[in-house]
Structures
1.
Amino acid sequence: MNLPPRPLLPKHVAERWGCSERTVRNMIRAGRLKHFRLGGRLLRIPLSAVE
């Protein structure tokens, strides 16, 4: 059974890209990085938006 890839936390995106978590959050805030929220607060970034 193939499951879709799990979405990433801002922290994990920052580690992949070699930048700060603040930079990732700023990109989300500016609308330059696709994301969604779980439970109203938890940010998640689809793997497709990172690659």
2.
Amino acid sequence: MSAAEREPTSWQPGDVRGAAGGLLALSLATFVAVTTELAPVGLLPLISDGLAVSEPLTGLLVTAYAFMVAALALPLTVATRRLPRKALLVGALAVYTVSNVIVALAPTFAVVAGARALGGASHAVFASVTIGYAARLVRPHLAGRALGLVTLGASTGFALGVPLSTALGAAVGWRTTFLVLTGVCALACVLTAALLPSVPGGGAPPADGARGVRRTALATVASANALAYLGHYSVYTYISVLLLAAGIATAALGPALLLIGALRLIGAAFAAARLDVRPRQTTVITLAVVAGGILAVGLAFPGTVGTVAAAAMWSIGFGAVAAVFQTAAIRTHGASPDVVGALVNSTANIGIGGGAALGALVLDGAGTAAVPYAGVVLVVAALVVVLLARRAFPAAPVAT
């Protein structure tokens, strides 16, 4: 028996109300993680000027971070499988804290890049273990709601964390912003240590005759997850370019992105309310709204009002994407919850980094107007996988 499985705990999975403290801690920690990952997006010009490097080079702080997570999620999760789960999460948050303070004080771009690499390695573990942890806090038939509530933290990071860090950077400088983020990370670390109950690790499915079927279902969910993220980020990475080309004033871009990002919370709440009752229907609706929104962006562009309205619809749909795929993957029982989390985390970050690269190729080749159409093809492909794979995406939660 591993150390993680022997972790002292009196915790018994129950309902969402009973797990509220732990879910709140995970949601706050996820908010901090997403804000840390994406803070350089809004601060990119300031970091570039401050360190006297080009903006494309500075942009690698985000791209390389995503690819590090994609590459390290599975191996680091497996390597740390014997460590107590709670201690591992708290430790990951402590590493985020150290990473951010190094960035804030770094004298050169090389030091910043090294600190970001440290944060990326931490994120590879944190995001993977969080998925399994949230599912372990409640009874299996409530996993969808638990994961939906935790992903509200991620949606809030997109909606508020990144815009607020950008505004703070413009007001007091990017280094001070990372110092503030350091304090928020430290607070999340303390609250997680205080509020999160210890749960046992392990949980690998039995090596019975259905193991191959379960693994195939898990691989199917992971593939659909990668396609959805590829499609989304091939367009979303360049949302500012699209909005400016559609006539949004530069001064209005920040508020527009804040509004569009905040609408993700609606999608996250929708997923939390429905995934434990109608998971397949919820997944289909989610991807249909995302695909419809991206297609509408392409059709409305370059009209200002139509493009913004379509982007709002798309954002609502994408707010549910993380929860629907995390829940579907956990319920395949194709591996232990932590390995499942690592696969979902890895494929999502392949989509983030690969989508940005694909969108850049389309943008440079066919032009701005073609970007949404490239993205919608990939999201529709993810939807087709879901429609065909009834075992991986069942109509109702399967009793375990």
3.
Amino acid sequence: MTLKGKTAVITGSNSGIGLGVARELARAGANVVLNSFTDRDEDHALAASIAEEFGVEAKYVKADMSNGDECRALIEKAGGCDILVNNAGIQHVSPIDEFPVDKWNAILAINLSSAFHTTAAALPVMRARGWGRVVNIASAHGLTASPYKSAYVAAKHGVVGLTKVTALETAEEPITCNAICPGYVLTPLVEAQIPDTMAKYNMGREEVIKKVMLERQPSREFATVEQLGGTTVFLCSDAAQQITGTTISVDGGWTAL
């Protein structure tokens, strides 16, 4: 699979899943535009390192995904957008009756509304270029639910719905839109939680991963950012030309339960 000559914009991509997806798209030959809400030297250095490692063009564009105007401006500043990966997201855990309103609003804005704004800005660009792929990073929580995650679950269900509408509106064009629904993924953020969880349950690393952290994931293994990147590359390939408006679960069997 080669994506040489294509430009991919990945939101929330200076770490974790977004960075893993960006790296795999670059490995496949795509030029990549990284994004987050910060504007540090290390953000721009990260883009430069990807460009050097994979021999592609890469740049970093600051944009706050809680702000619709900045979401749309990201696409303009990217200088092209053949592939859009809506990945940016945050989380907060609380009972519904105690859920902070500001947290609800922020999660809906960043996890759901940002995908609407970037997609709305990207589709005309894709149409002008005669090809496009939209990949939304949803979640197993876009297909099922857990208590105390009302905003996140609502937003991710919304992302799945937005994916279907986008696919239907572009069905007769050379543009597809799909959602990837990861289960638990081994990111630096999750890795950092393991020692505290080990101490809390007085368990070893492997035991706490399998029995506590991955209790709902039947494979008892984390998905990796590389696997999610590979799935994204596949959805951008010619082999996936007739795959649109659907979800692909990368969750070790979680949603099969």
